[in-house]
Amino acid sequence: MLALADAQKFEGLALTPPMGWNSWNHFGCDVNERMIREMADAMVESGMKDAGYVYVNIDDCWHGERDSLGFIHPDPERFPSGMKALADYIHEKGLKLGIYSDAGWTTCAGRPGSRGHEYQDAVQYAKWGIDYLKYDWCATEALNAEGAYLTMRDALFAAGRPVVFSLCEWGNSNPWEWGGRIGHLWRTTGDIYNCFDCVKDHGSWSSWGVLQILDMRDNDLLRRYAGPGHWNDPDMMEVGNGMSVSEDRAHFSLWCMLSAPLIAGNDLRSMGAETRAILTNREAIAVNQDSLGIQGYKHAAVDSLEVWVKPLSGNRFAVCFLNRGRNATKMAFTWRDHCFRDEHSGREADFSQATYTWFNVWDTSDTGSTRKPLKTIVPGHDVLMLVLSEKR
Ligand code: GLA
């Protein structure tokens, strides 16, 4: 065991936004070891692993009971072979295993939380070979969020196995202000819902569509806290869970522009070709995984479209034209009337002075130059996403 005073976050673990899969959005509480193994198989066979996805994360409801000494065990019916065997299976595939707990007395689905057992749980996870911990915020009463997450950070560090630490506190206590020294990503909002533009009322709480999540926080403020090793997390993805192809493409593109963790939430075993093509689009993923880790920002609104910009390495920029409306919109974007000026990163592209060439991320045969105005039609609930390189 390391001395407590030396405790810190495991550095170097999420230098680009984490990529993986999580059980919650599609399966809810219905998790078991066979399904998780099959998901790992599908991650490899579908090309997701080759595209960069590595974490297979079990969300809520894997838990059984604590033993007489207080150590947690998985539900023996759902995980009869135990977590160590599951972690071994996943590691043999070159993937990593994530698990879920909660800072309070119980998880959001009423399973045992880690409160009062933080060090024991961290030791147990390390023994099992866990690589990623999502740590939720239900049943926390008056706990101080920063303190509670710090306790678990220290416990993970003391246990000695490097773990990506995902803070799931929904943005209630401004985790972007203190999360960077504690974890590798922090949720900025409540839960996502599988729709592009709606609010789902659950009675005492709500979950949120893609546009609602996009608008919920002050992105210009939050993006200053994101960077290699510490990311804003607008929640796991709903791609492949029932939205239209356009909506899924727009959702994925925006998460790439925002340097969001790319955690798929669909059934990888049965996804169709269109879903797979979205989740494995290499150019979009390269925007998300760019080494500079600069979170994108809204540059302007033009012709009822929003123009999002993300500075990239190599003096490149990603540009995403988002049509928030249901109807297709004509667009005429005169580059030379625009200058991308990002005070946060100090990056600038002045199209009245410099020329950039571009390609379309979703159809790489579609290319052009900023010399000419961009005239096109963007379908409803869809995007046009480009990568620009300076012409010398
Ligand atoms: C909370 C989290 C979700 C999910 C559920 C599980 O709502 O925000 O992402 O983990 O709990 O119960």
Largest sheet: 8 strands, parallel
Helix content: 25-40%
Portion in strands: 25-35%
Q: Kindly, what is the distance between the CA atoms of the first and last residues, rounded to a whole number of angstroms?
A: 55 Å
CATH class group of the largest domain: Alpha Beta
* Tally of alpha and pi helices: 12
Radius of gyration from the alpha-carbon trace, in angstroms: 21 Å
Known CATH architecture of the largest domain: Alpha-Beta Barrel
* Uncertain spans: none
CATH superfamily of the largest domain: Aldolase class I
Count of distinct structural domains? 2
Bound molecules: alpha-D-galactopyranose
Give the rounded overall mean pLDDT. Answer: 97
Structural class: alpha/beta
Number of strands: 22
Quaternary structure annotation: single chain
The CATH topology of the largest domain is: TIM Barrel
Overall 3D form: globular
Strand order of the largest sheet: 11-8-7-6-5-2-1-12
Describe the protein's topology.
Elements: E1 19-22, H1 24-27, H2 33-45, H3 48-51, E2 55-57, E3 63-66, E4 72-74, H4 82-92, E5 96-102, H5 118-128, E6 132-136, H6 145-159, E7 164-167, H7 175-178, E8 185-187, E9 199-201, E10 206-208, H8 210-216, H9 219-222, E11 231-233, H10 245-257, E12 262-264, H11 273-279, H12 282-288, E13 297-302, E14 305-312, E15 316-323, E16 329-333, E17 339-342, E18 347-350, E19 356-360, E20 363-369, E21 374-378, E22 382-390
Parallel strand pairs: 1-2, 1-12, 2-5, 5-6, 6-7, 7-8, 8-11
Antiparallel strand pairs: 3-4, 9-10, 13-14, 14-15, 15-22, 16-21, 17-18, 19-20, 19-22
Helix pairs in contact: 2-4, 5-6, 10-11, 10-12
This protein binds alpha-D-galactopyranose.
Alpha-D-galactopyranose binds at residues 24, 59-60, 107-109, 136, 168, 191.
